[in-house]
Amino acid sequence: MKDKQEFAEQRLTPSLDEYDVAILGGGIAGLTLALQLKKARAATRILVVEKQEHPVAEAAHKVGESTVEIAAHYLRDVLGLGEHLQTQQLPKYGLRMFFSTEDNQDITRRVELGHAVLPPRRVATYQLDRGRLENMLGSELPGQGITFLDGCKVQQITLQPQDDFHHLHIYHARSDREVQARWVVDASGRSTLLQRQLGLAKKVDHNANAVWFRVGHAIDVNEWSTDAEWRGRIREGRRALSTNHLMGPGYWVWLIPLASGSTSIGIVTDASMHNFDEMNRFERALAWLHEHEPQCAAEVEKHQEKIQDFRVMKDYSYSCEQVFSDERWCLTGEAGVSLDPLYSPGGDLIAIANGLVCDLIVHALDGENIEERAAIHNQLFLLFTNSWRSTYEGQYPILGNAQIMIAKVIWDTAVYWAIPGLLYFHDTFRRAVDSPEILMNLLRFSILSEHVQGFLRDWLAVAPLGATDTFIRYYDFDFMSRLQIGMTANLAGADLDAQLVENVHFLERLAGQLVSTVIDIFSQAPASPTIQSLVQRWQDDPFLQELIRVYQLEEQERPINSGWITMGGQKRERQEVAR
Ligand SMILES: Cc1cc2nc3c(=O)[nH]c(=O)nc-3n(C[C@H](O)[C@H](O)[C@H](O)COP(=O)(O)OP(=O)(O)OC[C@H]3O[C@@H](n4cnc5c(N)ncnc54)[C@H](O)[C@@H]3O)c2cc1C
């Protein structure tokens, strides 16, 4: 690392700019953080440095196009970008999945999970053209009094926690700059500038790959069949506006419509189940689609002359040892942690991290000692993301089994609305620092979550395959509507605490129902020794037994529809067991 003297000699311009906060990287995380900070503390002098020149390309810019409720709430309500979202982006019609059936030649035969009616407006979500969003944000900053240097690359970061300012060297083709800033926030995405410099990278056990491309044409899954009954399943809204996932063992393929008229298509695979070399060029990806998703391949081929880009990303998931420090640095977005795109949580992590970063910096700039706050925010964020990762880690084999995957999606979505959704919509993350109860409940829930994910893996090992011709809607289950709209309940103080406790308790009942129902299914069928010993193991597991007890206690008085576990069937329906 060069010292200050060398730095000074290298400078091409004599300017030494001074800021309260320098944000390294002007992607979605950096740009939104700048706006949020300015809203929270108008006097803050903020610099955002972005390598790429603006305006960036629309459509073929970045991935991260589908939002879920937390990210949508962040952009629309916390940052006030509602008008842009409504007029320049597309409304999203929820997550929709089509599970593999035989040769996947006929979409109407595939088990479908999705909405038949529009979700309530208060919890609207969006499909984002990332280029369009980042261009808007970049042009918004100067008007807010934020310095935005596009086409400039952060080349050197000298952290000086013992001094008042950290030091940055910024490269630009015409003139370099020296900058000093009290706080440095790394939002450089996969460049992970500070993570690498500080040796904070943390490998995870989830190894999955992705390839994607944009087609300059609308692709609508609803057009893949003229079957009137199948089309008529959708009572409101358009399938095309969903984030459509084509699911198979160890893989999913996304189709996301973009406001600029293009369609984003991606293939995501478990590294141990699909060979990355068979999809890492466009022609190979197309051949792979022909083999696994022939209807999609045919559509892509129809518009092949309109392919706008082709990108690959190997082993995209990683974690980090530390993301926030009282030594006046933070990491946000993919500069810190990358989970898995199956449920589109990337924007959520940005919303949550930016809120915590903002809270930390505002308190510090206002003169408060933030040592404890930084430690708790850091612990909370890492606890959360690590627990969230168990949703994906080791779970890709389940993607090929419609019944278990539907149970998993309903469970994962219920969890998302009941815990992080409730907390985020009520602006509770940054207040966890003052509430040991919140931390306790999160811990309790994260243990529950790991057990349920393990149970789903066990179930897969002995479950039958081959379901067809079923449509499951999220709102078939009244608890789903309740938890989703519950995020917007606007509760305060003790009411909110009570709701969190109630939600964790409800999830315990739901988990108990899952275990009890699956045990029942297997107990009624002629079982192989493998199944018998697995069921015995479940029955001997004290944690699972306690969940069953909690579930049974209230089942008479407050029954829960078990169709989420049995693909809509009755609880005690006899099912064929294959192995
Ligand atoms: C396959 C895949 C699919 C995904 N799909 C979704 C999805 O549907 N929904 C969702 O919410 N999330 C999704 N994600 C996650 C999403 O892509 C990320 O959360 C998001 O893009 C991260 O934004 P960011 O601002 O942290 O990083 P970026 O958007 O990558 O921004 C970082 C910026 O830093 C700049 N930069 C880098 N180095 C320097 C430097 N030295 N100096 C100056 N600038 C620099 C870059 O030019 C870039 O603009 C997906 C991820 C993957 C891998």
Map the helices and strands.
Blueprint: H1 4-10, E1 16-24, H2 28-40, E2 46-49, H3 69-78, H4 82-88, E3 90-92, E4 95-99, E5 112-114, E6 125-127, H5 130-143, E7 147-149, E8 153-158, E9 166-171, E10 177-186, H6 193-197, E11 201-202, E12 208-215, H7 228-232, E13 243-248, E14 251-257, E15 263-270, H8 282-292, H9 294-302, E16 311-313, E17 319-320, E18 324-325, E19 329-331, H10 346-365, H11 371-389, H12 402-425, H13 436-462, E20 471-473, H14 478-486, H15 493-524, H16 529-540, H17 542-555
Parallel strand pairs: 1-2, 1-10, 2-7, 4-13, 5-20, 10-19
Antiparallel strand pairs: 3-6, 4-5, 8-9, 9-10, 11-17, 12-15, 12-16, 13-14, 14-15, 18-19
Helix pairs in contact: 2-5, 2-10, 3-10, 8-9, 10-11, 11-13, 12-14, 12-15, 13-15, 15-16, 15-17
Bound molecules: flavin-adenine dinucleotide.
